[in-house]
Specification:
mainly alpha; Methane Monooxygenase Hydroxylase, Chain G, domain 1; about 80% helix
Length: about 120
């Protein structure tokens, strides 16, 4: 995220490229805001080792993971579908691909947690 913000503020890149990178940053901020409501629920997963399989807490964590995964999937599509002007920019394309990689890694982590529940 810091790299994207720094890139968007560089004065040596064309304004159109900077705007494309800023749009990617804005998408990541949006993801962060949407996921923040599920963060606590997901972090309690490590405490579920002492509860039974039918404990309601486990279902709440599963719900949080599913919702988070849905958010990531929809936002990934949004980031991956760059406007034409951004797709023509090597810099903007590279930065959006970095963002997609972060989303994919996060989705993978959530999937791993989900499989342990």
């Amino acid at each position: 995220m810091a790299d994207l913000v720094q890139t968007s503020q560089r004065t040596d890149i064309p304004p159109a490229d900077a705007n494309c990178v800023k749009a990617t940053v804005q998408n990541l901020v949006e993801i962060s805001q949407e996921l923040s409501s599920f963060e606590y629920l997901i972090t309690i997963e490590k405490e579920l080792t002492s509860v039974g399989d039918n404990d309601p807490t486990r279902d709440v964590v599963k719900f949080a993971i599913e919702q988070s995964t849905n958010i990531l999937t929809s936002q990934r599509k949004k980031i991956a579908q760059l406007p034409d002007q951004c797709a023509r920019s090597a810099l903007a394309l590279a930065k959006s691909q970095q963002a997609v990689q972060v989303i994919d890694a996060t989705t993978g982590i959530l999937s791993s947690i989900r499989s342990r529940l």
